[in-house]
Amino acid sequence: MKVSVNELLNIEELDARAIFEGVKYPWEALTEIKDFIFEYSKNLPSDFERIEEFVWVGKGTTIEKSVLIKGPAIGLQLRNQAFCLH
Predict the structure, then answer these.
(1) Which domain holds residue 67?
(2) Same domain, 53 and 15
């Protein structure tokens, strides 16, 4: 079963709605995420901090020791055994 973007998300509520414009299925937006993150990072609120090249998290975010983050990435909730890859 293929679930369309409109069935899965209310894109009007998303900051990243532009990456879903013109796509039918969510996975079609994957190629747009990297460029979106680079642009979005230019206007992050002051409660975000850059912890690595192309990786930003909210100040005070707890990142477990076993977490791997490979940017670009913004504002994630990172739990045990998490892998965040672009």
Answers:
(1) 45-86
(2) no
